[in-house]
Design brief:
Structural class of chain A: alpha/beta
Largest sheet of chain A: 6 strands, mixed
Bound molecules: cobalamin
Strand content of chain A: 15-25%
Shape of chain B: globular
CATH class of chain B: Alpha Beta
Strand content of chain B: 15-25%
CATH topology of chain B: Rossmann fold
Number of helices of chain A: 17
Distance between the termini of chain B: 30 Å
Number of domains of chain B: 1
Oligomer: heterodimer
Number of domains of chain A: 3
Largest interface: A-B, 25 and 22 residues
CATH superfamily of chain B: Cobalamin-binding domain
Number of strands of chain B: 5
Largest sheet of chain B: 5 strands, parallel
Shape of chain A: globular
Helix content of chain B: 40-55%
Number of helices of chain B: 8
CATH architecture of chain B: 3-Layer(aba) Sandwich
Radius of gyration of chain A: 23 Å
Chain lengths: ~475, ~170
Amino acid sequence: MIAVSIDIGSTWTKGAVFRRDGQGLTLDRRIAVPTTTDDLSRAFSRVLDGLVDGGDAASRVRRGEVRLSYSSSAKGGLAVAALGLVPEITLESARVAAYSAGAKVTRVFSYRLTRSDIRSLEAAPPDILLFAGGTDGGHVDSILANAEALARSSLDCSIVYAGNRALADDISDLLAGKDLVQVPNVLPSINAPDPDPAREAIRKIFLSKIVKGKGLDVIVGETGVEPLPTPYSVYEFAKLISARVPGWSDFILLDMGGATTDVYSAHRERPAPGTILRGLPEPEVKRTVEGDLGLRVSAEAASDALKGLVADALDRREERIAAFADYIARVSAAPDYLPEDEDGQAFDAILAGACVAEACGRHAGRAAEVYTPEGKLKLQTGRDLTGVTRVIGSGGWLSRTASFDPSPWFRRMGVDNRGRAVLLPSEISYFRDEHYVFPLLANVARDFPEEAAKAGIDMLVAQQ
Amino acid sequence: MSDVDTIAVAKANTLPGMTSLPGEDPAMTATVVLGVIGADCHAVGNKILENVFAVAGFTVVNLGVMVSQDEFIDAAIETGAKAILVSSIYGHGEIDCAGFRDRCIERGLDDILLYAGGNLVIGKQDFAEVEAKFLAMGFDRVFPSTVDLSVPTSLLRQDLGRRAAFGGGK
Ligand code: B12
């Protein structure tokens, strides 16, 4: 049996054939062609035809002779604007749900939408507005005000309402003219987030609406197989590895590209005695996306955000810092640029290291020590990844760069600017997804979960 | 009749759309946020309060120990709570509670009821003095650790009923 997997990325459409023999999966062949953004089906067909011998690949998929699974993050993926009430509570719950659905969160709003918020949404509508706020039976006024403001607007994107259930009928009435889906609350009660219904709704909208146009519907028509958003699929894959592969219950997975850095972590919180957890409970697998951290398109924004880390790495030498800035200005306008010279390669490594450190720092929880007369207590918010020592690097640059060692970068994230400990490991074992097969295996995992999870880990290259 | 019985009767008599009398229904299922403020980790009283207020018919959102002012306020906003019950057991209540009312107003909780209780200050100070201090800080009611808990539950019911009747609260 062969399994064909294709991932339609914003610049490359990549595919691979995996052969299933006995209990395992082996990588047979890989192809990548430039994504055809005007009609995604053209590049897709080239890859599919290239991977399946004997012609007429699509109909062989339809007849079930070839197992096909595929994903798409073309055009930067699914844009979700998240609306919540309190930033650290329902807005955060909405954000967690959107990220887990494989979306990028393009805008966030809390409390009440202002007229200018509405205008900016109208001017640049997201694919989906995820509308949260209030626990069940909780807050009313601002949520109704937000629904009224949305009702009056000309915004016509999909709206997923995942707020206070007590207002479900009011929301139906107020937003009757909109493309509205209602799901259970992302935060039904204050200590019990429930991101899955909203996540499922986002995935369905991806299939029913986002897939239309751009040529994805053509692919569905020809193959009879539906795509998933790439990060949704990778998220499921991370969950699967954590559940199924011995020794891999806890790990961090980095996927860094030109525009964004994604961090996934699989970790179950087990607070030690003397630790008091505050804030929202964390999901076992969490994904965060940093839209300002990336190696090319976001290089400029990243070097702004990472000034301190970069300067330290350049020993605070003025002329090196200036040369770095020049380099960033050059590469951010050239998404495909690959440096040949030593300086360029060193600068890429510094930018990559700093992006990894910062993205993981934002992903991880915080702890502050509180001194009480009978000793120290730890007040923790977010997830404690200090014991999570396995780190996987995936995505173009991380997959390619055998010489990159992220360990020292983890050690730089000791405390944040409020003096709280950043809960990241200081010693790590680093594994590289050398052939960038994670997204492809994530697709295959839908048909062959056990085998794909094992193959994903087996194919990693351990850093010496 | 005990508290529990009163509630059962009141609930049975209250039908949807029925206007309620002051001191009765509005308080019955009202949400209250409960927690121990500051770096205070005394957990026992907190559990008792959760239980007592729940049995008295309130929907209790218990944040546990070591709760900051903003965490109380965040939770009250999201849950639409009508009252915040602050405990301080370890003696630093005065510092931890300072500015609580102002912060509530700043964050849009104009009408929330604030109760404080426990060992609010260090050592043996006259309770009347302690009470005056906390009332001046904007708390609506203040209780010593020795209070019989049927007193705050019925006062809360009264306070909420009065607010509903006079149009205060949301
Ligand atoms: C057990 C205990 C501890 C345990 C706590 C274990 C835990 N995780 O819960 C430990 C050993 C950790 C501890 C530590 C400390 N403790 Co201690 N502790 C006690 C002790 C013995 C019992 C507390 C208790 O559980 N009481 C039973 C519960 C049911 O009562 P309660 O907490 O008072 O709560 C009731 C009322 O206060 C009231 N109430 C409380 N809040 C509110 C709010 C509202 C709105 C209302 C209406 C009512 C209300 O209703 C509650 C339920 O009935 C008391 C002494 C005592 N006998 O009370 C000292 C005591 C509270 N501790 C004290 C102190 C000073 C400390 C320490 C600072 C120093 C120390 N080592 O002793 C640390 C502080 C640690 C910290 N960061 O919080 C002092 C406080 C002094 C003061 N406020 O003036 C006390 C009073 C001892 C004393 N006499 O000196 N303590």
